[in-house]
Amino acid sequence: MANATVLAPSQPVIVRALKAISRWRRPVLIIPVFILTLVVVAGITADWISPYDPEVGDPNHRLQPGFWAYEPVPPVIVTKEVVAVISPSDIEKQKTQITEFNARQIDPNAVIGDKLDVVVREGIDTLYILGTDHLGRDLFTRIIYGARVSLVMAGLTLAVGGTMGTVLGLTAGWHGGWVDEVVMRMVDIILALPLILVALVLVVALGPSFQLIIVIMAIAIWPLFTRVTRGEVLRVKTADYVALARVAGAGTIRIMIVHILPGIANSVIVVATLLVGVVILLEAALSFLGAGVPPPTPAWGSMLSEGRDRIAIAWWISTLPGLAIFMTVLSLNLFGDWLRDALDPRLRQLE
Amino acid sequence: MQRFLVRRFFLMIITLLAVSMIIFVMARVGGDPRSLLLDDHATQEQWELLGEELGLDKPLYHQYAIFMGGVLRGDFGESISQRRPVLEVVAEKIPATLQLGGAAFLLALIVGIPLGVMSAVMRGSILDQVGRAVALIGQAAPSFWLGIMFIFFFAVYLGWVPPSGRQDWNSFVLPTITLAWGGFLAGSLRLMRSAMLDTLDTEYIKLARAKGLPGRAIIWKHAFRNALIPPLTLAGVSMPAILTGSITTELVFAWPGMGQLAVQALWSSDYPLIQGLTIMFTLGYVFIALLVDILYAYIDPRIRYL
């Protein structure tokens, strides 16, 4: 008897997706894709998954190490003497004495001179997974919010710079002549500028702001889009299908959007992917110098600089945000390399 | 050749003009440039004097001419935070930056070029994997983070070298490695490797092999020389990266150079200082880029006909 069974997927979707990724040319790609997914998910869901406020800390838990040093000490009962006042800086007296005000909250009938049993917790009583910074802010929370800041800035920068660069590249390549000349000389000039210093000039003159950083980074990256787009347009514009579209009566704008843009989209996507890491590093450098997003907004670069002077006493403040930048950019680069080889190997020459 | 060089020269001039234009416009975009160029304690007298010097009653193009005249004479105004001429403040910081930049550049060449060649020759070996890791880290890790990690491990934990400052030779070690690794090393290594792989695949190398020449001669005499051009080009292109990298590196290591000065200018909102620094930085590296272009045209005759 013939079995006419329908082949049903026997594995969950996620397993099949991972298997599909692992069948790509580089199996190691699973790790970068996983890390990038993690960063994106963390950035989007920061409000829900982070337990603390990213900008307001708890002054009682400053510079506290994370899980690696977490040893909960069981509470003990100590008998304290009720007194009128204790100096807040007198730590020794606080161990054996309690103020009348505080005592009343435990036992409303307490009076000065009484002995009172008090439950005392020594050592770390709150777990901060990755520790806290110099203002007692949870580092894990700030790193997650920092992922959001990095992603939003990179996204906006690529949207602005990518659009500008692609449009200029299309125009320069299509029009040729003096338009081409002007655009390409602008490209040369921007690429020859000491960008960080120009950024510092702008920040000193206009004051640091979110918008200014986006504008600066967009100006820095558009030439790279223009170069690639222009080259691709030059290659595509003599193709038969473009000439046929022209004969069929299509206007310049229509030809560009309908006939040329799809032909060069792959290159633009590859360049954009490879530039995400560059933009994140640039933003981190500006924030590190104090020219990025103004504090207390958690940006990875500024978190790094806050921990710089405290590296000997609290290594995690600088190390962990830096690790976040490193892992993110490394994953982006590996993913971008793969995408380039898959979509458009000719772009290899760009390196 | 001449046409190529003339073109590069014009690009250099236009770049400098663009930078001066940005600085000039930025000082005026927020209103009176004097509010950026003088500090809050300036007297009415100083205020009026500077207004006359800048020609604020004259049209904009005239003001720009006055500004450029000052720049060409090396007059960048007076630093707000240091109360000394900007040129003087910057000039004393130049040697430290050049030393560090030069050391990093050399280190990147000394490590990057041979490692790139060996990676290509011994493709897939452990050495190749090491080279790949070095390049990947250099391109993905922020150099200032690497620097802080080096300080933590080698200076604070092991205590081998001083954590910051510029005293003996050993204070050079960490900043040099940081600047080289985060800057030019990764690029030169990757480019040298891929150029070498391309060259080893050419007909004349196969011919040399067929002739029975020893492997070492083929690699160093025939392939290496031809593969050297892309990394050399990159060296010119990387100058901006090294100079801008020196800003964060100098901050991390408290290195008394131009980069640290730029950060101080930022923190104290010292506009005269940051404008002078930017112009001198730009001048420095467009000049180096031009030199590399000339060198490049000399090494590779094909470029002369571009």
Please describe the structure with a list of short key phrases separated by commas or semicolons.
heterodimer; A: 351 residues; mainly alpha; 3 strands; 5% strand; disordered N terminus; B: 306 residues; 77% helix
Account of the protein in words:
The complex is a heterodimer of chains A (351) and B (306). Chain A has 351 residues and is mainly alpha-helical. Helix content of chain A is 62%, strand content 5%. Chain A contains 13 helices and three strands. A three-stranded mixed sheet of chain A has the order 2-1-3. The longest helix of chain A has 38 residues, at 252-289. Mean pLDDT of chain A is 82; it is low at 1-9. The longest helix of chain B has 31 residues, at 170-200. Chain B is flat, with a radius of gyration of 24 Å. Chain B has helices at 2-29, 34-37, 44-54, 60-72, 86-91, 94-121, 126-140, 143-157, 170-200, 203-210, 215-227, 229-252, 258-267, 271-299. Chain B is an all-alpha fold and 306 residues long. Chains A and B meet through helix 7, helix 8, helix 11, helix 12 and helix 13 of A and helix 1, helix 7, helix 8, helix 9 and helix 12 of B.
